[in-house]
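step=encode ok
step=design start
structure_in=
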């Protein structure tokens, strides 16, 4: 009986260790990292696909569904368009638009 209890405790300890190992250094689970990466890829593809706005120099970061846009654009319209496109991506909770307008 005692041996069975010790084995059960060891199994529970191993399961707890495995569960803790599924968290990254940021405290996000592997699934949350995948979701954020998917959102980032989706936003980037929308920005690149919008040829008229020329938004290829926009950096996109996602954390828990919050998309941050960073970089330089040439017009205020490009800044607004980048935010619109980011909001259209699936899974986006909020957009933080840090884009700076700098004419050439």
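sequence_out=
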């Amino acid at each position: 009986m005692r041996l069975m209890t010790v084995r059960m405790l060891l199994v529970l300890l191993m399961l707890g260790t495995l569960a803790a190992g599924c968290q990254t250094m940021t405290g996000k689970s592997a699934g949350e990292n995948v979701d954020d990466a998917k959102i980032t890829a989706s936003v980037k593809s929308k920005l690149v696909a919008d040829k008229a706005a020329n938004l290829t120099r926009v950096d996109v970061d996602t954390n828990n569904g919050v998309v941050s846009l960073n970089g330089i654009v040439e017009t205020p319209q490009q800044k607004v368009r980048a935010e619109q496109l980011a909001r259209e991506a699936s899974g986006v909770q909020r957009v933080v638009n840090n884009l700076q307008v700098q004419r050439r």
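step=design ok
step=annotate ok -> The helical segments are 2-21, 30-49, 76-88.
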